[in-house]
């Protein structure tokens, strides 16, 4: 779900919640919301009613549509033959990178992410390291290791690998 759909969902949910709270207040005997709802939904004022109803229906249809379909592009096609496609999940590639990089000496935490690049696959690897490592040497080692391992396991060529050192910490993060 993209940012537009998230904002739409928030506004749609807020509007429906407010309307249901007002209707509930009327059902419980509070007369003040009746005047608010009567002014808004008065049939003699179609210039407010029908555009509002159209927006609500369109927002509901959009959110329904988004809920039915998964976002595409979360897989990479490795090969295609007469029998079908061979695809690998981006999450699987990220898990492979996390496993490989976390085994290096001096690496405390790894957060890989596949990024789209022209004509291929790119990677951004955020790491936390110990203070005793040389960051430039470790970064080159990570890039080489990740590129070679992904090529070996999946056959994919990684076009670029950006390393970002997020933290230099002396101890491993606690697992709770």
Walkthrough of the structure:
By secondary structure, the chain is α+β, with helices and mostly antiparallel strands. The chain folds into 2 domains: 3-68, no CATH class; 75-168, Cation efflux protein, cytoplasmic domain (Alpha-Beta Plaits). 51% of the residues lie in helices and 26% in strands. The protein has 5 helices and 5 strands. It has helices at residues 3-27, 32-40, 46-68, 90-102, 135-154, and strands at residues 75-81, 84-89, 107-117, 120-129, 158-168. The strands form 2 sheets. The protein has a 3-stranded mixed sheet, covered by helices on one side. Strand 3 and strand 4 (120-129) form a beta hairpin. Helix 4 (90-102) packs across helix 5 (135-154). The longest helix is centred in the first third of the chain and has 25 residues, at 3-27. It is elongated, with a radius of gyration of 26 Å. It starts with a helix and ends in an 8-residue tail after the last strand.
